[in-house]
């Protein structure tokens, strides 16, 4: 399961939410590194792209009710003896810029953080030995470590936060009109089990 699958899941969720909520949704493909700036500038009304709900983000934007729970995973090469972040002291760890995985790296002590525009690039560098590890969402990690690079990479730690990390749809602070529409549609989608059907389709769990 790739980041593309997570985005596909989110997009299908938006379409289902719009249908159940009785409104039309226009999907606009946007690069991750500029997605929050675009929201702030009013280029679109909401973000549906695997955005984790964090206290920091809640200071500048509002979130819908959660639609998916995720954890962060630590991936290393199979020839590595590291089993957790503490074992990587002084080493280079990669993550996608602007994600909670990258924030986890930055917050850890004695790690050299390297950012990437796309998580696949970080995985490629890890695969060839240019990184000691990568941190990303656990379903994305599973796709790379258990499928694409199953001969060279492995997941050694699921990093548990104080609370479960959850994805939500982000809107500009105070945009109650859009937030209410999304939450009403989301409630109907959950009540009918549509979210579970889409999760099975895109994520397989």
Descriptive account of the structure:
It is a single chain. The chain has 205 residues and is α/β, with parallel strands linked by helices. The protein folds into 2 domains: 3-69 and 165-202, D-Maltodextrin-Binding Protein, domain 2 (3-Layer(aba) Sandwich); 72-159, 3-Layer(aba) Sandwich (D-Maltodextrin-Binding Protein, domain 2). It contains 8 helices and 9 strands. The chain has helices at residues 3-21, 35-40, 55-58, 100-107, 119-127, 138-148, 176-191, 194-202, and strands at residues 61-63, 68-70, 72-77, 92-96, 112-116, 133-137, 153-159, 165-167, 170-172. The protein has a 5-stranded mixed sheet, with helices on both faces. The protein has a two-stranded antiparallel sheet with strand order 1-9. Helix 1 packs across helix 7 (176-191) and helix 1 (3-21) runs antiparallel to helix 8 (194-202). The longest helix has 19 residues, at 3-21. It is globular. The model has no long low-confidence stretch (mean pLDDT 90).
Could you outline the blueprint of secondary structure elements for this entry?
Layout: H1 3-21, H2 35-40, H3 55-58, E1 61-63, E2 68-70, E3 72-77, E4 92-96, H4 100-107, E5 112-116, H5 119-127, E6 133-137, H6 138-148, E7 153-159, E8 165-167, E9 170-172, H7 176-191, H8 194-202
Parallel strand pairs: 4-5, 4-6
Antiparallel strand pairs: 1-9, 2-8, 3-6, 3-7
């Amino acid at each position: 399961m790739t980041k593309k699958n997570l985005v596909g899941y989110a997009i299908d969720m938006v379409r289902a939410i719009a249908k159940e909520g009785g409104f039309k949704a226009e999907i606009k493909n946007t690069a991750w590194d500029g997605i929050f700036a675009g929201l702030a500038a009013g280029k679109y009304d909401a973000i549906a792209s695997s955005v984790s709900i964090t206290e920091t983000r809640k200071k500048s934007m509002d979130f819908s009710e959660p639609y998916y729970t995720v954890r962060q995973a630590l991936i290393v090469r199979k020839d590595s003896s590291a089993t957790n972040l503490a074992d990587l002291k002084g080493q280079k760890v990669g993550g996608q810029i602007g994600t909670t995985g990258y924030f986890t790296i930055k917050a850890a002590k004695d790690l050299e953080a390297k950012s990437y525009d796309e998580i696949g690039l970080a995985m490629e560098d890890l695969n060839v030995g240019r990184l000691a590890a990568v941190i990303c969402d656990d379903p994305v990690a599973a796709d790379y470590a258990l499928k694409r690079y199953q001969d060279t990479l492995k997941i050694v730690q699921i990093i548990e936060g104080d609370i479960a990390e959850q994805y939500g749809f982000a809107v500009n602070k105070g945009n109650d009109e859009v937030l209410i529409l999304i939450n009403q549609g989301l409630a109907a989608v959950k009540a009918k089990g549509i979210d579970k059907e889409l999760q099975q389709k895109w994520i397989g769990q």
